[in-house]
Structure prediction request, 114 residues.
Amino acid sequence: MKIDDRRFVVFCLFAIATLAVLSKASAQNRDVTHIVSGVVKHIDRGSKKMIVTAGDGAEHTIKWTDKTTWRGTKSSGTDIKEGSELTVKYTEKAGEKTAVEIKNAGRDTGKALQ
Prediction:
């Protein structure tokens, strides 16, 4: 093997290793979205958090932000209250669940039946 061939092989191996590291880092930075459907047990508008009780009885404390999308409800969920049926898409980082989208399931169901 000539020196130029060796350099080319080393360059290719370096490029492959770099791509593998970048691919792994990119995968770790992607947010996985979870979905929970249930009934609002408690809502605290001051801290922008709610507790949703899922069908299996598990309780999920979920916060919302100004980036959260609200569907089937008034702006920022002002008509959501304890007992409301919701479907929440959320991400979780360091044990904290943050809503990406909150859908008022009770309101949509009512419209579908009319």
DSSP finds two helices and six strands in the chain. Residues 1-30 form one domain.
